[in-house]
Amino acid sequence: MPTEIIKKGKGVKLSAEDNQILSKVKVGLGWEVRKGGQLDLDASVFMLGEDGKLPSDEYFVFYNNLTSPDGMVKHKGDNRTGDAEGDDEEILINLPYISPVVKELRFIVSIYDAKARRHNFGQLEEAYIRVVNLSNSQEILHYDLDADFSDDTEVEFARLVREATGWKFLPTERGTKIGLQGYVDKFIPEL
Ligand SMILES: [Ca+2]
Ligand SMILES: [Ca+2]
Known about the structure:
Elements: H1 16-21, E1 24-30, E2 41-48, E3 60-61, E4 73-75, E5 89-94, E6 104-111, H2 114-117, E7 128-133, E8 138-144, H3 145-148, E9 154-163, E10 166-176, H4 179-187
Antiparallel strand pairs: 1-5, 1-7, 2-3, 2-6, 4-5, 6-9, 7-8, 9-10
This protein binds calcium ion (CA) (2 copies).
């Protein structure tokens, strides 16, 4: 097991060197549903400008918008059942070529239609979100969603912030109950 795995509550273990070499990263989301159940998790990325808002709607990469306008954030497609082995949803990010208007990426995992279906992460048995540095295949973040965020319906699990020397990776562990729409409302520019 890679030693750099960041567990909830254990702080940041990513070294400055690791941060400087971050170039291609992958978000992997996996889950299993108990027999007879149905629960749909979604991984999303908000690409934010200087003002902390989306430069345009297309910079919100999710199941209905799989590729960012610069082509550097690619969602490999919605999975609604979690029935695959390993990562059920993946997002690939190519940091060096992201549009200069983007200053920050925010990563969210959410449960689809959680409020109406009365779902939360605690109803899952094996649900995780991870971030992999593709240059050395090491996980730089790995959270167990069902254990650590059992009451929540979304988790903002990481940020990548553009700095002069490159992109800084910041694990976050903010569980919420505002729905994916709550994040859209927060990041969409005011008219
Ligand atoms: Ca999904
Ligand atoms: Ca699965």
